[in-house]
Amino acid sequence: MMGVVSSACMVFQRITESVIIPTVQRTPSLPLTDTVIPEEFDIAQIEPTQESLDTSSPYPGPEIYSATWDAYPAMQTPSLNASETDTENVNLIPASPSASTTMSSIPSPTIIITSTPLPPWILSKLKATDPKNFKLASGKYQLVEFFAFWSGMSQAMAPIMNKLELEYGDQINFIYLDIDNPANDQLKKLLKYKTAPQFLILDATGNVIKQWEGYVDESELIQSIESLLK
Length: 230
Description:
Blueprint: H1 2-20, H2 50-56, H3 84-89, E1 142-147, H4 152-168, E2 173-178, H5 185-190, E3 198-202, E4 208-213, H6 218-228
Parallel strand pairs: 1-2
Antiparallel strand pairs: 1-3, 3-4
């Protein structure tokens, strides 16, 4: 009994499979030799024609423009050359007479230079007194200077001494002794010379009243001279 049932089940299963599951047919693969090669592609067919360019773009093709890089019609810049009509409408204003005046026609201002002559003592130089003409007891006040031509301090004092001589030369004697002159060696010992320049004021008998060494202020010399002449 069990064998009959088992056989019936197997028959039913086969009938069901044949009815429900369709048969799948496999498509045979094509060999490589059977590959279809399309016809040669014509590139010229896709190149745009002049008519297509005219209808597809508001601007003409770039080949119609010159090598001067002109702008497209919508971007053209206005010309800088004025037309004849514009030239006629321009009112020309004549230049004023003053505008044509050149710099060469303008008179230059007259410069008047007035110079005050320098006093003679400004440009004075050192001068030496002849030792033969010098006496200690001269009967008059004397301002004696020991100097040297190579001494810068003596050179600086020369204008001051010459100025004082111009003002007081008729009242006292001004004596200039060159220390490098051997004829003054005896006077250097008598008057106790130390350094150049050295200034001494002598009384009428040849005694030293006052003396200075080095640079002396002009006002100090004037004060000393004024005190002698009172």
